[in-house]
Specification:
It contains twelve helices and no strands. By secondary structure, it is mainly α. Helix 4 (99-116) packs antiparallel against helix 11 (250-265) and helix 9 (209-217) packs antiparallel against helix 10.
């Protein structure tokens, strides 16, 4: 709703992308130096957990990449600045070591190229993408993390399986309305099993958006969450099949791909119970609605 108050013009988009670039620079300044100097295992910045930071930086990089490659009628200096912000966002994303965020970002790249990158710029984009991927793979522990991509029997995943089992039990108890966030917290100790036994940390979430929502608010709420994702994927498929002249603006593409990142990450993490993530998720939907509903008001390129 707040985005409906802003004019749909180039000045708004330049200001918005500039703000995202500033945020990307700030997060990278806080996150990357300790990673390089102190060899910390995973970066954190802005009081954001590394999984939260991965979703934020992934979304920022996709929004800025679509702007740098696809926005028309802007100065080259703006494109370069947005490109730098996108690269820094990718660097932070890589350093979070969040495998699900990596998968979401990589699966978004082909759609970004097809929808937002003009043919004459695709070779530039592909060169930059390959250079970033090769640079990341040159770091030993990042390469090791990639090699463990499909190892679903490590402790990180085993703990999630036990959390999902708690969620399944709670959903069976109250499938229509759920037990509420407090209900999960109250029942956790008596229901935990497997690797969670002896773990004195109190998890107020279940490490999966769909299971979280179904346990907190009931299966109908989880179906609604799935419907939102389905709408975004339907829009993306429609854009891919549309003639080039009817393709959406880059801001819409970047917002849709960022929502994709949040949905895919939510298969192993969570979004709804963490207000920072959910507020960002709502902002992305506001951007998507704002961009797709006002394309007819776009001013011609100068």
């Amino acid at each position: 709703l707040p985005f409906a108050l802003f004019p749909w013009d180039r000045r708004f988009r330049v200001a918005f992308y500039g703000s995202l670039t500033g945020l990307s620079i700030a997060l990278s300044i806080e996150a990357i130096p300790p990673y390089v100097a102190q060899r910390v295992g995973r970066v954190e910045a802005g009081n954001l957990h590394y999984n939260t930071l991965a979703q934020f930086s992934g979304a920022i990089s996709l929004l800025l990449a679509t702007a740098a490659m696809g926005e028309g009628g802007v100065r080259r200096g703006w494109r370069i600045l947005w490109g730098v912000g996108a690269v820094l966002g990718v660097a932070v994303l890589v350093c979070t070591l969040s495998r699900m965020a990596w998968a979401a970002w990589l699966t978004a790249l082909p759609v970004l190229v097809l929808l937002a990158v003009p043919r004459r710029r695709r070779w530039i984009f592909l060169l930059i993408a390959v250079a970033l991927i090769m640079s990341a793979l040159s770091v030993p522990h990042i390469r090791e993390r990639v090699q463990r991509f499909t190892e679903f029997d490590d402790p990180e995943f085993m703990r999630r399986y036990d959390m999902w089992d708690i969620g399944e039990q709670l959903i069976r108890e109250r499938p229509l309305v759920g037990v509420g966030p407090s209900g999960v917290a109250l029942r956790y100790d008596e229901m935990k099993g497997g690797m969670l036994v002896g773990d004195d940390r109190l998890w107020v979430h279940l490490h999966n958006d769909l299971i979280n929502i179904a346990a907190y608010h009931g299966i109908p709420a989880a179906v609604l969450w799935m419907a939102l994702a389905a709408i975004m994927y339907f829009l993306t498929l429609r854009w891919l099949s549309a003639p080039r002249a009817r393709r959406p603006p880059p801001l819409a593409v970047g917002a849709a791909l960022s929502i994709h990142v949040f949905f895919v990450c939510g298969l192993l993490h969570d979004t709804l119970p963490i207000y920072r993530k959910f507020a960002w998720y709502l902002m992305l939907w506001g951007l998507l609605i704002h961009a797709t509903s006002r394309t007819t008001l776009e001013e011609p390129d100068e």
